Write the structure tokens for this entry.
Amino acid sequence: MEGWITGGFILASGLILFFNLWGRSLENHGYLRYAEIAREMIRSREWVVPHLNGEIFIDKPPLVFWLIAIPSSIHGSVTPLLARLPSALSAWIGVIILFLWGRQIYGSIQSGLIAGGALLSSYQYFFQSRLAKTDMILCLFILLSLYFFFSGYEGSGKRRSLFYALSFFFIGLGTLTKGPFGLSIPLLIMAIFLVKEKKWNQWVSKDFFWGYLILGLTVLTWVFLFIYRVGLGRSIDLVRNNEILTRTAPVYFYFIRIWLEFAPWSILIPFLFIYFWKQKMKGGPPGEPFLLIWFITLFILLTLFKYRTSRYLLPALPPLALMIGGRWQKKMLYFLIPIFLVVSIWHLREYYWIQRDRTYSPGMVLVGELKPLLKESKLFGFQLDSSTIEEVNFYLDPITPLPILKDTENFLELLKRKGQTLVLMPKEKYEEVRIQRHPSMVFIQEFHYKKGKLVLLCPS
């Protein structure tokens, strides 16, 4: 019977996560940027050094781009479905792991069902699974690294060695997904747990040394290849000049956001901690302290970190879902209907977004209007913002990225050229240049784009 329940859960969760995944365009509520980097990887056949619009991109390590580019290269192009596929697959695997882990810790299949269902239907987990971003992939690797660490801690012999090796391997993959976040979060949680258990000597054990080797090979292989391609000096300059983190928020930010991001199950958080307060003298399942350390450590770490955004909370949701599954495992029937009701609401909300995107998808609309005018002409961009460049590059799908003119001198030099050349620029910049009475440009067409207008010109 448990086999049928397990199979049914895996199938149902997959259907929920993959249903209508292809429905939305990418520039609204997604990261078109990652899809464009994957497209440039395929076109250039440069798999070691990621590029965005022809420039080296080091904001993120390359794993997410590889995961998008590999199936896209087989298909022949990057599509919204293939761009989102890594996030959806990661979410599905994460839910299955949570189901298995809940059953392992609490000894009942009901705990696994509630834990997996609560995570799947939580607001942030559901919607992050449908975006072409790194966050869901990172969440999976953190989850897998901690799952195998805990399994190794509970195991013995060769199984322990294997589980610890897998734990460090997934820490390495997390690092290749989002850099230091993927490395520091699981290691810190593991360290605090081992201190609490008075097993800090594990860090110098044979199993952990093998883990360090696996972690190093997983991460440093790409690092050395990148330096070999780019050069040590330029690699250092790229890192120094890169500004990855810019979003700040008040120190109390996560204390407010957790209620939305884990909705609707966030209403159970106070009851959960009241339960732990009452149970602290009675003991409980051996895995619960690890889950509690996981959530509290990550929440405090994120709160103390200078840069804050709501999606950083994603790896903190699995331990909450697991503890809810264990606490209310005898109330499974009370969870089934709300889980399916909430999932239906989330899908209806996304359906509204899809309908809106069909009539207002700026990138697709703009490129659809541009294509009949371009024909064989080469298109240049003048003082376009980065999001416009990304959308035009992705939907126009040129062999080489859209050339960008960054200053007026370059623009005026282009106007002197003869041949099939067109320039796309903001209307306000066009008015500015037109006032200067440069006679060598011909107005072709004006386009409504987002909250402004763009102008297409041709050198005369």
Summary: The two ends are 76 Å apart (CA to CA). The beta strands are 51-52, 55-56, 378-382, 404-405, 421-426, 441-449, 452-459. The chain has a mean pLDDT of 87.
